[in-house]
Amino acid sequence: MNRAALHQISYGVYIVTSGKDGKFNGQIANSIVQVTSRPATLAICINKENYTHALIRESGKFVVSILSEAAPMAFIGLFGFKSGRDVDKLKGVKSKTGATGVPIVLDHALGFIEAEVAGELDGGTHTIFLGNVVEADLAGEGTPMTYAYYQNVKGGKSPKSAPTYEADAAAAKPKAPAAARYVCSICGYVYDPAEGDPDNGIAAGTRFEDVPDSWTCPVCGAEKKMFEVDR
Ligand code: FE
């Protein structure tokens, strides 16, 4: 099997939120399709281990926010590389409550679609939820981010829980030239020695080799050893 063919499939980049009774979460998802037009129906693909999966099962509701190309990596990292079991991802994020009672993420969103679960299919590591659309609206202006744009222009990676994750690509580690830029193998954040990470006490001009081992990725929290040379 030539898996390169699978990499030619196009996706978007979305935030899926769910929950009820004050317990809410959201995550990045790329496998979302409109299945039918009338009535409007969506299919979304969610990893069974994700907190959002449990919340969709509990509430029977979910909301899809369509992200703009302008969404920064730190914002994507918050929803894509951190678990809602550990952090309140929606704290400090602009949102509103819609028809389903689920928070709708509005930051960097071009539009949103609210749905009620109408069925599900076991997809192995993932569940495919079918949702009847109950409300939808535009939320901002811009160009919707595609998964290819996220990877090629923004330098993003797939988390291990994504349907598109490739372990082989994440494992390759080349040798380091002096004062090289390093990239987080988990979220794609790039450490540039010229800039350092002043927000976390690393002065501009600090070589990656001289960054303390206790330092972690400012986007996803990965350990220093998870970084590899940016080629
Ligand atoms: Fe990271």
How many H/I helical runs?
A: 4
Q: Assess the beta-strand content as a share of residues.
A: 25-35%
Bound molecules: fe (iii) ion
Which secondary-structure class do the elements indicate? mainly beta
Structural shape: globular
Ranges with pLDDT <50 over ≥5 residues?
none
Average predicted confidence as pLDDT: 91
Give me the count of strands: 12
Rounded to the nearest angstrom, the radius of gyration is: 19 Å
State the separation between the terminal residues, measured CA to CA.
Answer: 28 Å
**Helical percentage:** 10-25%
| Major sheet details | 7 strands, antiparallel
Give your account of this protein's structure:
- This protein is mainly beta and 231 residues long.
- The protein has four helices and twelve strands; from the N terminus they run ββββαβαββββααβββ.
- Strands 2-1-5-8-9-4-3 form a seven-stranded antiparallel beta sheet. It has a three-stranded antiparallel beta sheet with strand order 11-10-12, with no helix packed on it. A two-stranded antiparallel ribbon has the order 6-7.
- The relative contact order is 0.16.
